[in-house]
Design brief:
single chain, 408 residues, alpha/beta, Spore Coat Polysaccharide Biosynthesis Protein SpsA, Chain A, 3 domains, ten-stranded mixed β-sheet, 10 strands, globular
Length: 408
């Protein structure tokens, strides 16, 4: 199933008739450029390249950008005939992606991180979606999680996307990893390249910049595998909090005056603080327990700038109270969605296995909600409090920063 979101903007000088809304690309027509930035990920790079070589859609090129690696990245890329490898001094992920844009020729572009993999039908699914919606700037699919050794971990939750993709992306980055997106190259002529100042969130920044001006579309095919191995950029909550909020704040001028956009923007601030800020609070608490004061102080400074309310959540009981209502709300919304799907399956007379799986999911969610309710009721009896006096003492040493911390 494919879905279109948002309204397209007319590109000046780029629309030449209803059959060619993106201006007629005269380079590699139908060619998909798969750009693989790589910095010291040679041990994963071969899998990424081979996942592209296994595509059902045959008309593609592979461009590896060796971003100043000190390992065997260039040598690994050189083992595959036809794969172009461009070596440059280390400039960061966004600069490497921009270099890949410059050195590739396809009408369409996919950015595959060196530690991730495409599934065999990825390019074909994305192109079919763009073919269905020729006015859309990019198409996105879904991904699943794999471990460091490449074994399957889990599927992501089902995406619940607003009709207006820009509103949905303001609220949260529902697209996720870069490899699930296939872009029309022509959009970069209008939007520009990836912003190097928000490197860890440059993909989310790009989605927002495009969705604020053009229609985009999505499909439900799982097209990529996202590898979790402990050194992903997203595993650094302080960096993700800073860059994700910086990327979102770039949209302030665009949302101003539009009530729906402004509400979505505020929700996006809250969601990003919850997602990354709460993890940073946990990290600071762990540093305090281990008496790693320098690391703790560094995390506290990020909280003061981007999530000052998080300082109060260093109290473990307050953090529990902060998290549980949101988890309950999310589980209840998930339960309602599954109940609606179960009802629809019963009306369409679907197979017994599908109905059984849906009923099992509903029962599981009800059980989880019941346990969360009990945890909230028993919170005061079993929560352990982190002594905030340690944090107070640390902040007072650093110039009276405790005075800036919200007390509620």
């Amino acid at each position: 199933m494919t879905r279109k979101h948002g309204q397209p903007e007319n590109l000046e000088g780029a629309q030449h008739g209803s059959h060619d809304p993106w201006g007629g690309w005269h380079g590699g027509v139908g060619l998909v450029s798969v750009v693989i930035p790589c910095y010291n990920q040679a041990h994963f790079l071969g899998e990424a390249i081979e996942s592209v070589l296994a595509q059902s859609y045959p008309h593609f090129e592979i461009v590896v950008i060796d971003d100043g690696s000190t390992d065997t990245t260039s040598e690994v890329a050189g083992r595959y005939p036809g794969v172009r490898c461009v070596r440059q001094d280390n400039q960061g992920l966004s600069a490497a992606r921009n270099s890949g844009l410059h050195h590739s020729e396809g009408e369409y572009v996919v950015f595959l991180d060196a530690d991730d993999r495409l599934l065999p039908g990825a390019l074909e699914a994305g192109l079919e979606c763009l073919k269905s919606y020729p006015e859309c700037a990019f198409a996105s699919g879904r991904y699943r999680f794999i471990a460091g050794d490449g074994s399957f971990l889990k599927q992501p939750r089902e995406r619940l996307v607003e009709k207006d993709s820009y509103i949905a992306l303001l609220q949260r980055n529902y697209i996720g990893v870069p490899a699930v997106v296939i872009y029309r190259r022509a959009v970069f002529a209008s939007i520009g390249g990836f912003d190097t100042s928000v490197d860890a969130s440059a993909d989310a920044d790009m989605y927002l910049r495009i969705a604020s001006r053009f229609a985009i579309c999505s499909h439900e095919e799982v097209v990529a595998e996202y590898r979790q191995h402990g050194v992903n950029m997203s595993s650094n909550p302080g960096r993700m909090l800073r860059t994700s909020l910086t990327a979102l704040r770039k949209q302030r001028r665009h949302v101003k005056g539009n009530k729906q956009y402004e509400e979505a923007y505020k929700a996006g601030i809250r969601n990003r603080r919850w997602r990354y800020g709460d993890r940073l609070v946990d990290e600071v608490r762990a540093h305090v327990r281990e008496r790693e004061w320098k690391r703790a102080f560094k995390g506290i400074l990020v909280l003061l700038q981007y999530y000052p309310q998080g300082i109060a959540l260093l109290n473990e009981r307050r953090m529990e109270r902060h998290r549980l209502p949101r988890r309950l709300k999310a589980r209840r919304a998930e339960l309602e969605a599954h109940k609606r799907r179960l009802k629809a399956l019963e009306h369409t007379k679907e197979s017994g296995s599908a109905l059984g799986m849906e009923r099992q999911e509903v029962q599981l969610l009800r059980s989880r909600i019941h346990k969360l309710d009990r945890r909230m009721q028993n919170l005061n009896q079993r929560a352990r409090i982190l002594p905030l006096r340690k944090i107070q003492k640390l902040l007072k040493r650093r110039g009276g920063l405790w005075a800036k911390v919200p007390k509620k």
